[in-house]
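Thread: "does anyone have the structure for this chain?"

Original post by V.I.:
We have the sequence but no experimental structure in hand. Need at least a predicted one for the grant figures.
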Amino acid sequence: MTTGGRPAEPEVIWSRPQRAGRGPRPAHSRESIAAEAVRVADAEGIEAVSMRRVAAGIGAGTMSLYNYVPRKDDLYELMVDAVSGEYAFTEPTGDWRADLLALARQTRAVMHRHPWLPRLLSPVHGFSPNALAYLEHSLDCLAPLDAPDGEKLELIAAVNGMVSTYVAGELALAERARSLPWSEAAEADARAAWIGSRLATGQYPRLAAALTGGAPPVPDAGLDMAAVFDRSVSRLLGAWGT
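Reply from O.Q.:
Generated one for you, tokens below.
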């Protein structure tokens, strides 16, 4: 049962047929709808995505779009699934840590291509067709790990959570850098000098010791973020299966 194209009862978008058994072929597809929504979000941010905007982009009426996508949350789910299809799965090597790190790198790349993605990730959107393929491949990579399957899913979630948080930080830094009235390097130098003056007071001996010879106290414009990413994920993976 539907009301104005919208389900009157709980419904998963993937269980809803794209076309009825009878009648004319639909003028649009979920793929084209998702592609337009992704295009808008990539260009202008997730806030710019609306049913009206997507409908106009594919040449449909706003109300007719609800016949394909009953709710905006369904549209978000289509978007997440669409970009989740960008992974290139390869045969597992037998080194599950290396394989999960490779997947994490792909996830980071996908999120940089689609900066809105971390905001839409949730367990609700985690079981779309392409997400199921991702989970199946991840578990295939984890076959050598001697752990219950439930714990393997926890590990996959932990890695994805770390990647999402890391990329969100990268994107925030990049956005802030674009708004600075001076160079990013000059900003980092000024902040490092201030933090150095505070550490020189002797009030923070443990922090001073931790920063000596380690990572810079503030993000450095020349820092190899990909290398930091690899080290961070590798540390997480190293805590499992030992």
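V.I.: this helps a lot. The first strand starts at residue 2 and ends at 3.
O.Q.: and Residues 96-183+221-238 form a domain with the Tetracycline Repressor; domain 2 fold (CATH 1.10.357.10).
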